[in-house]
Amino acid sequence: MNPAELNYQPVSTFESTDREFSKTEKFIMEKGKSYRQFLAGVVVNIASLALGTTLGWTSPVFPKINYSNDTAVPDTPLEGLPTADELSWIGSLVALGALIAPFIAGPLADKIGRKWTLLSSTGFFAISWILLVTTNNIPQMYVARLFQGFGVGFVMTVQTMYIGEISSDQFRGALGSFMQLFIVTGILYVYAIGPFVSYVQLQWICLIPPLAFAAGFFFMPETPYYYTGKGDKTNAVKSLQFLRGKSAEGVQEEALKIQEAVEEAMKNKGTIKDLVGNKGNLKALIICAGLISFQQLSGINVVLFYSQIIFAKTGSSLEPAIATIIVGIVQVIASGLTPLVVDRLGRKIILLVSGAGMAVCHALLGLYFFLDYQKSEVVPSIGWLPILSVIGFVSVYCIGFGPLPWAVLGEMFPANVKSIASSIVASTCWVLGFLVTKYFSAMDEALGSHWAFWIFGIFCCGAFAFTFTIVMETKGLSLQEIQNRLNGRTATDF
Q: What angle do CA 126, 53, 98 make, to 5 degrees?
């Protein structure tokens, strides 16, 4: 029969079938609105900006409370000057709080949802800033910093889950790298404002980001994976409709894939045994915990917490506060590059460049402090070297080892063990973060600044080797394809 003659067939069932095919094809080809998932990604990352203010806070505040023998008049609410040991606790208690929080945040995210667990972090941040406004003693400052750590732990544990579960395969790498961009924006926020306002004014200014996050994120959807895991298919579809900017029919195919992935993952309830007893899960845990460990052992928190003090020690003609602001600006610019290139170049190559670059910068920074320790005559002529080294370090860190370990964490684990794995990895991060921050001053005094930075450089070399030999590339893979590769499965196995 001539296909053209089909137009004249009187059989209504054929015409109905033809119309249904066209309708289905229309929904499959529905373009959608990709900006919707970016909107959710930006709003959820206002929490990262709030987190960043807690990390950068010590840099402008320590000089205000007379950290050293500076001639500047201290701006402090404290009754008396804190000791060096008290200041190390103030600097490191955020990491201790962030270590504890994931074991609460992970199960809570499974019980009440990713959205409401993230919103609850606002309470921790708000309480901490109010405590810092009203404090006149060190113990209250300790409690405030511990509360900040709880907020940090909640955000870093659950936000990776949220981003990983709302993102399409095409944009998951870019959205996952937003966390670092917003963290360093928060650090710059406090670096740029802190030196030029009073202590009390700074605390009120730092209260703005968590309140802005709560106001905006309240209107964002819960993840479709969470709804599907709870058997709420209606809300899962509504969530996908918002995130993809499509009709209910247009997201049915993705909703079905999510349901299959969740059902596969939930066949066995997630436990520690499921995490370490499964080949793919164990490999994912080694990759994620390894990347996070090297992130902290790179010395990033030392650079962020003590940047003004590091620059003051160099004797550079550039004001330490200005040098710190320059570093903050560089961090934001470098972090802004990652979302643009991560899904083109891939995670692994960027991590390799980042690890090698950090090692070189630490070697140069250590060289400067070694020459200074030896009282070399060349030191006055190379006062620019530590500033250049720190700027280079934060640049390559913010492009690679800053954002990508968290992006990888959000895509490596199946739904049944995701919260447990995220809690373990986040706690690993903050155990090491606490140890490095708390004992850097002691290591600096015992070994000298040169050895302190050379040791960080050695760890960065380890980060390069680990990435080269262990880390798996996930560029362009769906969450299910990542699981297949981790478990050594291929398409022919299905």
A: 70
Distance CA 230, CA 263 (A): 11
The Cα 401–Cα 188 span in angstroms is: 19
Is 0.85 topped by the overall pTM?
A: no
If residue 45 lies in a helix (H) or strand (E), which one and from where to where? none
pLDDT score of 345 more than 90: no
> What count of other Cβ atoms lies within 10 Å of the Cβ of residue 307?
25
Residue spans of alpha helices (H) in 218-270: 224-229, 233-244, 252-265
The average confidence (pLDDT) of the chain is 83
Q: Nearest-CA neighbor of 51 among 103, 104, 113, 125?
A: 125
Task: Tell me, rounded to whole angstroms, the distance of Cα 161 from its chain centroid.
Answer: 11
What does DSSP assign to residue 482? H
pLDDT band for 129, please (50, 70, 90 cuts).
very high
| 272/284 Cα distance (integer angstroms) | 13
At residue 319 the predicted structure's pLDDT band, cuts being 50, 70 and 90, is confident
- Cα–Cα distance for residue pair 414/284, rounded to 1 Å: 10
Residue 98: Cβ within 10 Å count: 30
Q: Which residue has the tokens 């209606």?
A: 234
